[in-house]
Amino acid sequence: MRITFELNGKRVECEARPNKTLLDLLRADLGLTSVKKGCEQGECGACTVLLDGAPVNSCLVLAPQVEGRAVTTLDGLVDDPLMAALRKAFMEDGAIQCGFCIPGMLLSAYALLRENPRPTEEEVKTAIEGNICRCTGYIKIIEAIMDAAERIQNERP
Amino acid sequence: MIELWDGASMEYDKILENLLGRDDYLVVGHSVVRTDALEKALGRARFTADYIPKGTAVVKVVRSSQPHARIKVDVKAALGVPGVLAVLTAADVPGHNQIGYALPDQPFLNGEKVHYIGDPIALVCAEKEYAAAEAVDAVEVEYDPLPASFTLDAALQPDAEPIHEGGNVAVTTRIRKGDAERGFSAAEVEVEDTYETPYQEHMYLEPEAAYAVPEGAGKVTVVGTMQSPFLVREKVAHVLGWNLSQVRIIQALTGGAFGGKDDMGPLVCAKAALAAVKLGRPAALVFDRDESVAYTPKRFPARIRYRSGADGEGRITAVEVDITVDCGAYANRAPFWLWRMTAHAAGPYEVENASVDGRAVYTNKVFGGSFRGFGDVAIHFAAESQVDRLAEELGMDPVEFRLRNVLRPGSRTTCDQLLDHSVGMEECLRGAAEAAGWKRGRELGRKGSRVRGVGVGCAYHGISTSRSTPDWSAASLILNQDGSFTYRTGICELGQGSPVGHAKIVAEIIGAPLSSIRIEVPDTDSTPNAKPTHGSRGLMLGGTAAADAALKLRQRMISVAAEMLGCPEADVDLREGRAFNRQDPSEEVSFAELAEELYVRGVSPAAYGFYTSPRRFYDPETGLGVNYSVYTFAASVVEVEVDTETGQVDVVKVWPAMDVGRAIDPLMIEGQIHGAVSQGIGFTLMERLVVEDGLVLNPNFKDYVVPSALDTPEVAETIIVEEPYRHSAFGAKGVGEPAIISIVPAIANAIHNATGLRFNTLPITAERLYAALRRRKP
Amino acid sequence: MRPIPSFSLHRPKTLSEALELLQALEDARPIAGGTDLLVLLRDGAVSAKHLIDLGGVHELQYIREENDEIRIGAATTHAQLLRSELIAEKTPLLHEAAASIGSVQIRNRGTLGGNLCNASPAADTAPPLLALNAEAAVASTGGTRIIPLGDLFAGPKMNSLRPGELLTEIRFPTPPAGSGTSFQKLGRRRGLTLAVINVAVYLCLEGGVCREARIALGAVAATPIRMPAAEEMLEGRQLSGELIEAAASACRDQVRPIDDIRASAEYRREMAYVLTRRALMDAWERARRDTL
């Protein structure tokens, strides 16, 4: 099927079999390897992307289902100030170990802070409950998201 | 011991004081932003699957559907599936088909007999995923079933069908120290129980993967996810029947490993390499999650019968331990695993009389393998439960009881190894107990259906390999003409950050900014063999090889700088990327200028670092000797809340402490401890691989439940104890594995404190805890 | 795990278009969020020649109140339910259930209709909707029929829809003042977890007397079920701790759970008691607060 959608702010037109997942389209066809394949069951969150701004598991979205919609991967947010704040906090707080869960984790955190700039710790945990990390025990990740939220708030006039 | 250039020598932990002549460290001991963090945070870090281009042949594994059977394989129909390029069986292996790690019991591809559900039989190579999947189903395997053993007891029956030649006991161990019976007769109290620990699946986020490219005639390059590129090279060469130099292994960033990829790296890379060589084109094998969970090695299950006694003073007088490890289908690492359990059987305590016997037994289930903590998680669960029980029998506080028995400098281990230094067990225990407010914490009481409790666990873990196995590591460091450095180590980045630790050691010694040291990806064609990234040896062994390289290069840099600055070598200091005269710091040359001068003068700007661990010895008859060159010590106090109506346990807070020798990076140490706390919570409370007649029923994240963010406890700041080890760079010891060992018994002991129930089997799921509470009620 | 088998994908824009496709195509299935269906397709547990994607049928996404009745379009996502002030205010029960489903990612894709039609005995939205006395609107090209929600569930992972039929709406009476509800769920961990068992309770009080009680449980039988015996014990009576315990015990006696890899039947039976008692106590407390 021919599909047209917005990918990281740019219009993309491509061919996709109906049974191709968004995950496979992004990774294999469009070369966006920041989107990770972890379980293909929607249970690990490594393949998280933003669909019209909301986190979804790209392994559970069929490629043609994004017709006319906006898909954002980590690659599209390199220069975004909120993502930059999150990135900085993740790096400085020691929230990154193997890094495989990190793109998905950052996108979930980003979507949370966009909607809720001052989340409680419980809200942070809930926002990333679908992003499994086996290295960090989540503690520094949770800290980093809280830190990023605080810094962003403090920077605002 | 470092042999210095002027003939003098120095201990590695004294580099700062004796060589660098500084009062404080520049980077060691300070937390830094990891040099690999940015690419990971940008999503630009590439893992194995990210390297595989379109058009690469897809490799899939045909696996046994039977737990134990003689087989005949027919690939004709599979070859007929459109898009199939080849179907490879044992007959297609040009080199050796025997790939067992410790014992020759494991075929690379099974052609005659299968030993567990999932045993590899053939490799399907196809243009596309769909054709490969279809062809996997089209391979005809005729099974002639053999009786299968799924439990230790079944496999140990005299008439059990042998799973491998020589019967179902793969290996045995023993220790005889002192006189156990005499020790028990001196005991005032005695406790005995049998403990069982289950499989644990690593559940690293990145599944196994390898991408192989044939190069010219007689060379293959494999990019893979692994822990030991040189072990992978050895196994790939072995399967292909090639020389080591014909195989190039590149470790891509590895998305979590925890031991599992030490076992799977070679097996997966060899499959991709065989396919690529046979096809004459690039080939890739990427595991699905269910393959990764159902068919790859896990933490070895174990059963431990444990008897211990203590006298009225609260001294442990004897332990008698009988260990049975469930290998599953292949021994794999079981001999080492079992030995580690045997050697650590008494826990971190001084026990004069010890009798330990162990055996590893084959069953027709998925085989066990390396996993963080190795056998020490299971043996400490037993040992630390026993210690708690002895204290209870004596009416003593469990911390107080432990303090009367812990290993101290001058103590001897179960193996009679004298520990003369770097023994921080007591400080760890005191530190964790004090931070947790131990006495106060033990009286938390009940609130409605919820009851709280506090428990303690101690641990020690021998670093790297045991007994008389030679242990060494190597690294290389090149000063580039612009003053930057290229550092190479075969120690892998798995998430733990060990190579970053090496770079910090190099930066400290050579006075270079951390950012100027580029850590190259391990590549067996150019990287020195550092031996595996396992046994918590990556920083201690690999980092000391890095120190050796840095010390050698530093000396050359100082000697050239002295001439350039016109001052004695003793006056030259290196710092922030420049060499200067300590007497007049304005007299300086940049590393770029210095590098240029080294090249011009023909002084080697490259250094090869080498480190050999002190020799150890061991008597196989008694099991006594010097086992591990050094031990890391740890203690945890854990507070839990138990819902007595549902059996659910929440770990509320953890107070960890560890003697790390010297902290190279406190933040990374904390990261290791936090991750281990989570894995320990999983292992103790929720992770349960369901295996029925050899079939894994929950090969996925949905039903093999690991902790989520919402299961995260509060973790107090880690108490870092520093009792430096004389023979490693700055005195550092390994931390990755020791981190998980004490947390497991601490949770179990806390549950006991909360409920009065003692569990000798893991995991303590809500359902099991509920059932135990019910059984107790009248 | 195998690749997802091939199928044709149809993307209607309107409900009538979707119904016509469902009617006309052989071996066709609707797909909404796909969070269950794609996993089943990949596992080979379900197959279909045609998938009809409801993602473009916006008329199936709504939450509104009409004549003291709350109506929810079947393609409304869990995230939309969670964000709805109407739901949070008028039916916290459904809000709490939606919050406990899957993860943020799953809630952003998964739909109410999908969760119900997937017919998992453990579906988290089912007990609350059963307790709210919900009805389901089922449409086909031939028209729309309204069935009690319980009739939608035919067995484990089986719904009662006939070929060509589509669940289009869930509706239930707005809970009146004096009512209190509670949702309780037990999983194997705190986050992203399937229910080992879940319980929803609706109580309506009048001067301390329980006018109406509805109790529904999930993962304790072939389908999510109501507990009429326990409900009858409460209705028309002055509530008390003892009475609530007796009703919870009755639930334990009524459930018919199975052993599976998540839990044993025995444990589920016991937890039916514990969670029902907790839900009743909680709902009672909330109802009293509501009447004050």
Topology readout:
The complex is a heterotrimer of chains A (about 160), B (about 775) and C (about 290).
Chain A: E1 2-7, E2 10-15, H1 22-29, E3 48-51, E4 54-57, E5 70-72, H2 81-92, H3 102-115, H4 121-127, H5 139-155
Parallel strand pairs in A: 1-5
Antiparallel strand pairs in A: 1-2, 3-4, 3-5
Helix pairs in contact in A: 2-3, 2-5
Chain B: E1 2-3, E2 9-10, H1 15-20, H2 37-41, E3 57-63, E4 69-74, H3 76-79, E5 84-88, E6 113-114, E7 120-126, H4 129-138, E8 140-145, H5 152-156, E9 169-177, H6 180-185, E10 189-197, E11 209-214, E12 220-224, H7 229-240, E13 247-251, H8 260-279, E14 283-286, H9 289-295, E15 298-299, E16 302-310, E17 316-328, H10 334-343, E18 353-362, E19 368-369, H11 376-394, H12 398-403, H13 425-435, H14 438-441, E20 446-447, E21 450-462, E22 472-479, E23 485-489, H15 498-510, E24 517-519, H16 538-565, E25 572-575, E26 578-581, E27 584-590, H17 591-601, E28 606-612, E29 617-618, E30 625-626, E31 631-643, E32 649-659, H18 666-686, E33 691-692, E34 695-696, E35 714-715, E36 719-721, H19 738-741, H20 743-755, H21 766-776
Helix pairs in contact in B: 7-8, 11-20, 15-16, 16-17, 18-20
Chain C: E1 8-10, H1 15-24, E2 28-31, H2 37-43, E3 50-53, E4 63-66, E5 69-73, H3 78-83, H4 85-90, H5 92-100, H6 104-109, H7 112-117, H8 126-131, E6 135-140, E7 143-148, E8 153-155, E9 158-159, E10 166-173, E11 179-186, E12 197-206, E13 209-218, E14 225-226, H9 228-234, H10 241-254, H11 265-291
Parallel strand pairs in C: 1-3, 2-3
Antiparallel strand pairs in C: 4-5, 5-10, 6-7, 6-10, 8-9, 11-12, 12-13, 13-14
Helix pairs in contact in C: 9-10, 10-11
Task: Describe this structure as you would to a colleague.
The complex is a heterotrimer of chains A (157), B (778) and C (292). With 157 residues, chain A is α+β, with helices and mostly antiparallel strands. Chain A has helices at residues 22-29, 81-92, 102-115, 121-127, 139-155; strands at residues 2-7, 10-15, 48-51, 54-57, 70-72. Chain A has a five-stranded mixed sheet with strand order 2-1-5-3-4, covered by helices on one side. The longest helix of chain A is centred in the last third of the chain and has 17 residues, at 139-155. With 778 residues, chain B is an alpha+beta fold. Chain B has three domains: 2-30 and 472-612, Aldehyde oxidase/xanthine dehydrogenase, molybdopterin binding domain (Aldehyde Oxidoreductase, domain 4, 2-Layer Sandwich), CATH 3.30.365.10; 48-146 and 208-286, Aldehyde oxidase/xanthine dehydrogenase, a/b hammerhead (Aldehyde Oxidoreductase, domain 3); 298-466 and 619-776, Aldehyde Oxidoreductase, domain 4 (2-Layer Sandwich). Chain B is globular and about 85 Å long. Chain B starts with a strand and ends with a helix. The model of chain B has no long low-confidence stretch (mean pLDDT 96). Chain C is α+β, with helices and mostly antiparallel strands and 292 residues long. Chain C has three domains: 8-51; 61-173, 2-Layer Sandwich (Uridine Diphospho-n-acetylenolpyruvylglucosamine Reductase, domain 3); 181-287, Enolase-like, domain 1 (2-Layer Sandwich), CATH 3.30.390.50. Chain C contains eleven helices and 14 strands. Chain C has helices spanning 15-24, 37-43, 78-83, 85-90, 92-100, 104-109, 112-117, 126-131, 228-234, 241-254, 265-291; strands at 8-10, 28-31, 50-53, 63-66, 69-73, 135-140, 143-148, 153-155, 158-159, 166-173, 179-186, 197-206, 209-218, 225-226. A five-stranded antiparallel sheet of chain C has the order 4-5-10-6-7. In chain C, strand 8 and strand 9 (158-159) form a beta hairpin. The radius of gyration of chain C is 19 Å and the shape is globular. The mean pLDDT of chain C is 96.
